Amino acid sequence: MKQTFERVADLSDLPEGGLLGVEVDGRPLVLANVAGIVHALDGICTHMDAGLAEGSLFEECLMCPVHGGEFDVRTGEAITSPAVEPLGTHEVRVEAGGIFVAKPG
Hints:
Layout (H helix, E strand, L loop, with lengths): L4 E6 L8 E6 L2 E8 L2 E6 L13 E3 L2 E3 L6 E3 L5 E3 L8 E2 L1 E4 L2 E5 L3
Antiparallel strand pairs: 1-11, 2-3, 3-4, 4-9, 5-6, 6-7, 7-8, 10-11
C-alpha cells in the first residue's frame, strides 16, 4: 500500500531549534527542527496529557512542559522520567518549502 503524505506547514514556520504543533487526520503531532532535519512525533506526552509543542527542545531532546520528561526526537524514546513510554514517530518529507507528514494507515 502506497503511503500518502499531508502538507502540515511551511518550512519557514519551523526555525532551526524550534517546535511546532500540527495535526494529521485530527491527530496532534509536534514537529522539531534539529540542525535542519525535521522530525515528527506524537504531540501528547505519554506520561500526562500535555501538549509537547509547548515544551522545550535542546538538540535532539524534547522536554515536556509539565513534568520535564524528555524524549529523543529521532526515535521517540523516553529518556528521562517521569516519561517511560516512547512517543510514536512519523515519516517526514520536506519538498518545495513544505513539510509533509505520512498519514496513518
